[in-house]
Design a protein that fits this description.
The complex is a heterodimer of chains A (366) and B (231). Chain A is built from eleven helices and 14 strands. By secondary structure, chain A is an alpha+beta fold. Chain A folds into two domains: 2-25 and 232-363, no CATH class; 37-222, no CATH class. In chain A, the strands form three sheets. In chain A, strands 1, 5, 6, 7, 8, 9, 10, 11, 13 and 14 form a ten-stranded mixed sheet that branches. In chain A, helix 7 (224-266) runs parallel beside helix 10 (329-355). Chain B is of the alpha/beta class and 231 residues long. Helix content of chain B is 33%, strand content 27%. Chain B has eight helices and ten strands. In chain B, the strands form two sheets. Chain B has a six-stranded mixed sheet with strand order 6-7-8-3-9-10. In chain B, helix 4 crosses helix 6 and helix 6 runs parallel beside helix 7. The longest helix of chain B has 16 residues, at 174-189. Chain B is globular, with a radius of gyration of 18 Å. The chains are: A alpha+beta (366), B alpha/beta (231). The interface between A and B is medium-sized, with 20 and 26 residues.
Chain lengths: 366, 231
């Protein structure tokens, strides 16, 4: 009975721990996937044109544009598995129907995967002749989903219009990167790259440094704001997880302690017999600890295995976690070891109580 | 071997509520003695047995085993003394139901560092007429008499000089009870000092000394010859 109870406690605590861990990792990944956290720019010199406190613009010179070959190197860094999205962009000032505006060539799948907050009126762009208009750009051009516009002498279909984002994206015309490179005769050229990286297993500074090494002559910047937001959100959830885990472990210990204490009360006569036979107090403690060590190992093994089986579906259904992965072997062994240790710790007090039972209990049992 | 001098045992707070369980009891038990302590329920005979068993310190008087002042020892040393000098046969025999007969007999050896504990336990069982096949059975698979033999084997497995039995026939049928009494008498003949608490009148027929206790006091000692004469 005690074994079943300990197994249940271990299974519940381990399940909640695994779910918590999955949810924490899932949250971190979702935060990382939400927009870029690294930008890669061509290295250049900038000359601010300011005189007498009046700014008349700036001059950028000596810039060597990035190339598509360099972009491909980003996924080949040591921590390439941490790279989620690589979204290269080619910027160009264009005249469309007499209106000057900024056009950006993008890879649709990477860009749309990165900008999860975009809400598009119309259909999702995907083709070589599709364009996506920012809300203000659409207003200036009078464009709407389904209409066509002429960009640099080629006709494009307006696939959709972005809902206002409150950023520069509202003024931009987006089109397919390969088309843009061909149209503007800037083959293989890239103005800058936005990168989204999963930072749970590797600090973003390390990833930035690796990209910087892979693409000499580039300026790689980790977006401080994105990092700080991530740290705050993930940090708060992690703290919450630690509090919940600690509470669960304590509650589990109390349940095991109470049940072992109950079991000791139920075995008063038996323990009295041990004492009458000459068992010292430490012998009684050893017997109970040994018993619960065996029970603890078996219960922890079964409990943790049950937790592995249950936690995945539970995390998906109850916590809405999308990316549930099975815990690694070392985590499982650590969980079994920790559960066994906690069973032993929870047994110490009941064993001490048992050791203080008088051998007279054996004679007074009836 | 076992000597009790002027022991008394009182319970409860001082004053009129104080309960006197035993008063001025003296007793000498030597190897080969089979002593039956008799008396009605609540007379103090189980209290006397627990005091003899190094489990319940008397309020007054001394208990010595082999010249050792039992209650002058620490509780842990008293446990050692119980292990080395005393074998217990309990009222309901108290065999652990989840252990086989031989595992029950091995219990007192569990905490000792010695070779071949199983062999020693089997030898004790065989001395009492139980073979290896019976030794491998759970108590529930044995008859009442066989359970009694296992309980006695457990009491003698580490060869203690003193055997204390608390109503050992209380839970057995007449035939099994008789068998247990015979076995205890055999132990006394083999040189053990056997002290048995009982209110079974039949028991006086196998003991060579009977001590009657009433209201915590010895009312009369009786020898086996006197008892036999009265038969």
């Amino acid at each position: 009975m005690l074994a079943v109870l300990i197994t249940s406690v271990v299974a519940v605590v381990a399940s909640l721990y695994f779910v918590n861990r999955s949810a924490s990792g899932d949250l971190a990944n979702k935060v990382d996937e939400y927009g870029a956290n690294i930008t890669v720019l061509p290295d250049s010199e900038e000359l601010p044109l300011t005189y007498g406190g009046v700014r008349v613009g700036g001059l950028t010179y000596g810039a060597h544009p990035l190339t598509m070959d360099q972009v491909a190197l980003i996924r080949k860094i040591k921590n390439g598995q941490n790279i989620n999205r690589v979204a290269p962009k080619l910027l160009q000032l264009v005249q469309v129907q007499g209106v000057s505006l900024m056009a950006a060539g993008v890879q649709w799948d990477q860009e749309l995967g990165l900008k999860k907050w975009w809400q598009i009126e119309g259909r999702t762009p995907g083709g070589a002749t599709d364009v996506l208009l920012g809300s203000r750009a659409a207003a200036r051009l009078g464009g709407h989903p389904g209409s066509t516009i002429d960009v640099s002498g080629q006709e494009f279909a307006v696939a959709g219009v972005l809902q206002p984002t409150g950023s520069q994206e509202d003024d931009i015309l987006f089109l397919d990167l390969a088309t843009a490179q061909r149209l503007w005769n800037r083959q293989e050229e890239v103005s800058f790259v936005e990168v989204s990286a999963w930072c749970s297993s590797c600090p973003i500074e390390d990833i930035s440094a690796q990209i910087s090494t892979a693409i000499p002559g580039s300026r790689v910047s980790a977006l401080r704001k994105a990092i700080e937001s991530r740290e705050i959100l993930v940090g708060q959830f992690r703290l919450f997880s630690i509090v919940i885990s600690t509470f669960m472990v304590l509650a589990g210990c109390l349940v095991i302690l109470a049940s072992t204490l109950g079991a000791v009360r139920g075995r008063r006569g038996e323990i009295g017999i041990f004492r009458a036979m000459g068992f010292r107090k430490r012998h009684v403690i050893e017997v109970l600890l040994l018993e619960n060590l065996v029970i603890g190992i078996a219960a922890s093994l079964v409990g943790v295995l049950l937790a592995v089986l249950v936690s995945g579906p539970f995390a998906r259904v109850a916590a809405g976690v999308s990316g549930v992965s099975a815990p690694r072997a070392e985590i499982l062994f650590a969980a079994i070891g920790a559960a066994t240790l906690l069973v032993l710790i929870s047994t110490l007090y009941p064993a001490w109580v048992a050791s203080r039972l008088s051998p007279l209990v054996a004679l007074r049992k009836v | 071997m076992l000597s009790v001098a002027q022991i008394g045992k009182e319970y409860g707070p001082a004053g009129p509520g104080r309960v006197v369980a035993l008063a001025e009891v003296s007793l000498e038990v030597k190897g080969g003695d089979f002593v039956a302590i008799m008396g009605p329920s609540g007379s103090g005979k189980s209290t006397l047995l627990s005091i003899l068993g190094a489990m319940n310190p008397p309020t007054t008087g001394t208990v010595t085993i082999d010249g050792i002042d039992v209650y002058g020892l620490s509780q842990e040393r008293q446990a050692d003394l119980r292990r080395e000098y005393i074998g217990f046969v309990f009222q309901q025999l108290e065999l652990l139901p989840y252990l086989t007969a031989i595992e029950n007999v091995m219990l007192p050896l569990a905490i000792l560092k010695m070779p071949d504990k199983r062999g020693k336990a089997l030898h004790a069982l065989e001395q009492l007429g139980l073979d290896a096949k019976k030794a491998a059975r759970l108590p529930s698979e044995l008859s009442g008499g066989e359970q009694g033999r296992v309980a006695i084997a457990r009491a003698i497995v580490n060869d203690p000089p003193v055997i204390l039995a608390d109503e050992p026939t209380g839970s057995l049928d007449t035939e099994s009870g008789q068998l247990v009494l015979e076995l205890l008498r055999e132990l006394a003949r083999a040189g053990h000092a056997v002290v048995m608490v009982t209110h079974n009148l039949e028991s006086r027929l196998v003991a060579n000394r009977v001590i009657n206790i009433r209201d915590g006091r010895c009312t009369f000692p009786e020898t086996i010859s006197a008892c036999s004469a009265g038969r």
